[in-house]
Amino acid sequence: MPRFDSAGLVTAIVVDQATGRLLMVAHMDAEAIARTRETGFAHFHSRSRGRLWMKGETSGHVLKVSEIRVDCDQDALELRVEAAGPACHTMAPSCFYRRLDGEGRLERIGD
To answer: For residue 86, what are the contacts with CB-CB under 8 A and spacing of at least 6?
Structure first.
C-alpha cells in the first residue's frame, strides 16, 4: 500500500492512458483504492464532502482505470485511465485548462 498522510489520504494524479495528458488531481484513502481496484472505475475521497465518491457518479463521465502506478516515495499515485467524457466539473477535458500569464492572471488555454 502507499504511504498515507496524517489524514489517511494519498495524492492521485489522473492521466489519459492514450495521450498522457494530465486530467485531474484528487485524493484517495484506502477505501477509494479498494473500490477502484474492485470496480475498475476511479473512486476518490472528497475532502469537501467528507466521503467516498466515484468520478462520474452524477455526470456519467467515469474514469475507467487501466493501471495504478505508485511513485518512488509511495506517497502519490498515478491513475492511467480512459475517460468517458470531460474530466473537469467545468466540462473542460482536463482540470488544467488555465495558465498564469506574464502578469500573473489566469488565462484559458486551448484543448
So the answer is: 61, 92, 93
Write out pLDDT tens, residues 33-89: 999 999 999 999 998 888 999 999 999 999 999 999 999 999 999 999 999 999 998
Sign for the CA dihedral angle at 77, 89, 91, 95 comes to negative
Report the alpha-carbon distance of residue 107 to residue 83 in Å, rounded. 25
Residue with cell 477535458: 93
Query: What gap in Å lies between CA 75 and CA 62, rounded to an integer?
Result: 24
Q: What's CA 96's distance to the chain center, in Å?
A: 11
How does DSSP classify residue 47? T
- Residue 32 per-residue DSSP state: H
Q: Where do the H-state alpha helices sit in the chain?
A: 30-39
